[in-house]
Amino acid sequence: MQSVCLTAARRVECLSVSEPELQAGDALVRVLQVGICGSDLHLFRDGAIGEARASLPFVLGHEAMGVVEEVASSEHAHLLGKRVAIEPAIPCLRCEFCLRGDLNLCPNHLFLGLPPRAGAMQERIAHPAHLLEPVPDSLSDAEAVLLEPLAIALHAVDLGKVRTGTSAAILGCGTLGLCVLMVLKQMGVHPLFCTDLLEHRLNLARDLGADETVNAAQADVVAEARRFTNGRGFDYVFECAGVDDTQWQTAQIAAPGAKCLIIGTNPAGHVRLEGSSARRKGLSILMVRRSRLTLKRAMTLVVLGRIPLARLATHTFSMAQCQQAFDTAVEYRDGVVKAFIRME
């Protein structure tokens, strides 16, 4: 069967790979659509993300959906023929962290598209059936894919114990930042302050409910945040870009006693905070590790019309266009917010 593989730095190709084999508890999923995520782009640029280095060729992708074609056990027969969203993190379900409900913190987990586990950009994958969530017909394939980053945004908001009527800043308006924005907007968080380097993302942020946007390539984010809040700062700061500049700004624009949630993955593997501000303000620094049992809740919000997730879906490519897809995403071409690859 065909797959989209990383074969060199900034090079992806369609290659033949072996058909997957079902293990106990697995389902065979015919993959329909996969999103290109920031972590995929780290691998695309550098061949690694953090300490995880890909052995080439390597199948990419973890934001995915598809149709269940076969199950290893009759207990999962209800999934046959269903479109499903895929939870990409595979916990061991045996360690103390899994048993207390923190599946996202499992030290023994595997993750689709993160070395050494091959990703979802292949025609079929074998995946634990309990990590598949049936998708109603009212959701498009693109929305089903986007449930994964929305689930991370929901976990971040849960972790921060965000309250209605408080203020928030979102640093970085890629897919994750915009998902956080939409969740906070429907909760009644106000005002919402967003930053990014790309004007088309800021335009979309305003359409989705941001009260103030700042282009970080053209203005001093810290000065603008202080002006906007009359020097007070924000009750919550969500760092969604994973770069030194936004991490450094996080503590500087937070209000005393605020919570700062670090979602972005810094390719250098560090978190760079302005320590004196963080200490002086008594900030809580919270590290967001993927999602935590929030995929189904994310789906409910979209089905009910509370989250306009489809607004993030901007570009779709075929498997044969995989190089164009990654080049478009990594170079932010043509107003791209989220690029997808169709695996059919």
Give a concise summary.
By secondary structure, this protein is of the alpha/beta class. It folds into two domains: 2-135 and 308-342, Medium-chain alcohol dehydrogenases, catalytic domain (Quinone Oxidoreductase, Chain A, domain 1), CATH 3.90.180; 159-287, NAD(P)-binding Rossmann-like Domain (Rossmann fold). The chain has helices spanning 38-46, 96-99, 141-160, 175-187, 199-207, 221-228, 244-252, 275-281, 295-303, 322-330; strands spanning 2-8, 11-16, 26-35, 48-49, 52-53, 58-59, 63-71, 83-86, 89-90, 110-111, 124-128, 132-134, 168-171, 192-196, 212-215, 234-239, 254-262, 284-287, 313-318, 338-342.
Nearest-integer average pLDDT: 97
Q: Bin the helical content.
A: 25-40%
Q: Give the overall shape.
A: globular
Query: Which CATH class of the largest domain?
Result: Alpha Beta
Termini separation: 11 Å
Instruction: Provide the domain count.
Output: 2
* Alpha-beta content class: alpha/beta
> Can you tell me the CATH architecture of the largest domain?
Alpha-Beta Complex
Describe this structure in words.
The chain has 344 residues and is of the alpha/beta class. Helix content is 28%, strand content 28%. The protein has helices at 38-46, 96-99, 141-160, 175-187, 199-207, 221-228, 244-252, 275-281, 295-303, 322-330, and strands at residues 2-8, 11-16, 26-35, 48-49, 52-53, 58-59, 63-71, 83-86, 89-90, 110-111, 124-128, 132-134, 168-171, 192-196, 212-215, 234-239, 254-262, 284-287, 313-318, 338-342. The strands form 5 sheets. Strands 3, 7, 8, 11, 12, 19 and 20 form a 7-stranded mixed sheet that branches. Helix 3 crosses helix 9. The N and C termini lie close together (11 Å).
